[in-house]
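Annex B. Sample input.
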Amino acid sequence: MTVFAALTAATLGAFLYRWRGGPTWLPAPRWLKLTACAAALDVGAIRHAIEAPSAWSACLALVGFLAAFWGLSRAHGAYMDLGHNGAGSESDWRWAEILLADLRSTPLREGLLLALTGLAATAGPGLAQVLQGDWSGWWLVAVGALKAPAYAIGWGLAKGRRATELGEWLTGAAWGVVVGATLV
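Annex B, continued. Sample output.
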């Protein structure tokens, strides 16, 4: 992957993920934002389905897209501050909150929950690629967990709303670079 391709993939990923987060500078229906992000995450599996057409490959690409859409649509807002504003809770992830209830460190607990929400978005498309015979899909699965460090960097550089916006930009950039790398 060239430097230009990596920067382009990072820029596109950052834009799409931040746009999904709901900025007012480019309004669009939520379903459109989620669809664009899910398709971008699943582009590797979609490419495989086009290049080697089969019902299996097409089904994997569809399942990868739907899994990404589902993961991206799950709530994560209560964890974005990584404990800076106290412990948060989301009904979508109550089962995970219960499993992590014994952790005394709120930032660690919320970081793990944020990583889980990232994995929920990237695991489906990544596993679809792996099942299509493309082992680079494992990188896509793993990059979902970088959502937590991306938000931590955001909170290290800024505070409040700006910190979470920066976390979204960084999450999308990391995801974009990995998606671009899996296409090479």
